[in-house]
Amino acid sequence: MEVEALVTGLPDAAWAKPTPAARWTVAHQIAHLHWTDRAALVSLTDAPGFARLVEAALRSPAAFVDEGAEEGAALAPADLLARWRAGRAALGAALAAAPADARFPWYGPPMKAASMASARLMETWAHGLDIADALGVRRTPTARLRHVARIGVRARDYAFSVWELPPPAEEFRVELVPPDGGEPWTYGPPDAAQRVTGPALDFCLLATRRAHRADLALAAEGADADRWLDVAQAFAGPAGPGRAPRTAR
């Protein structure tokens, strides 16, 4: 696994390196992935237990994500890495065994197992970017970004709701150029009046809020599509501050 390879063998001091996420180190990033994997496993296997996790999140909506990351980051790096590996394996087995048509609760809309797997890929990719930035590593985008793009498109209405905006009444056409420059990845009706076009990597960076819109080569046609590029997010929970434009850094 690419993200695991980034941290395997790192000296303990490197786990304390700051990442682009405010106050989060490399250890915080891995701890968050482990924490979210555990939550997904509970969702798949223990619905009452997951309801208790949601209740705890609602008691501290602005802090529960950071608190989960802090808990894991306090572990010794070797212990955290071992727990993350074991948790990922358990989650993978649970996803493989889950009924294909069943929907499981989440912090956002309920999801089928396939969508939950895509969500875990999306988060791992996004937090892996933060780790790579901290370590000065350049990652090469691949066709696996299709999972991230798909969930970003499907989360359109949810993203509007996070910003307390009414979701658009009509579907958009989304056309994204994959990293290898092949046939575009397309979503929505071809004759839709409102459209978003551009590189798939840029859309994925936008939907995971790893880059500011001003730094990306995405184009929108239509007022609602244009607004979407301001609020898009592929993940559940608060949007967070996002990244500042490069010119403002």
Description:
The strands form 2 sheets. The chain has a 4-stranded mixed sheet. A two-stranded antiparallel sheet has the order 1-2. The protein has 249 residues and is α+β, with helices and mostly antiparallel strands. It has 2 domains: 8-113, no CATH class; 145-236. It contains 11 helices and 6 strands. The protein has helices spanning 2-7, 12-15, 26-45, 47-59, 64-73, 77-97, 113-135, 145-154, 156-162, 200-207, 223-231, and strands spanning 103-104, 111-112, 173-177, 185-187, 195-199, 219-221. Helix 3 (26-45) crosses helix 4. Residues 168-216 form the tRNA wybutosine-synthesis domain.
Summarize the structure.
With 249 residues, the protein is α+β, with helices and mostly antiparallel strands. It contains 11 helices and 6 strands.
Question: Which descriptors would you attach to this protein?
Answer:
MDMPI_metal-binding; alpha+beta; 53% helix; 6 strands; 249 residues; two-stranded antiparallel sheet; 2 domains; metal ion binding; TIGR03084 family protein; 4-stranded mixed β-sheet; 11 helices; CHP03084; Maleyloyr_isom
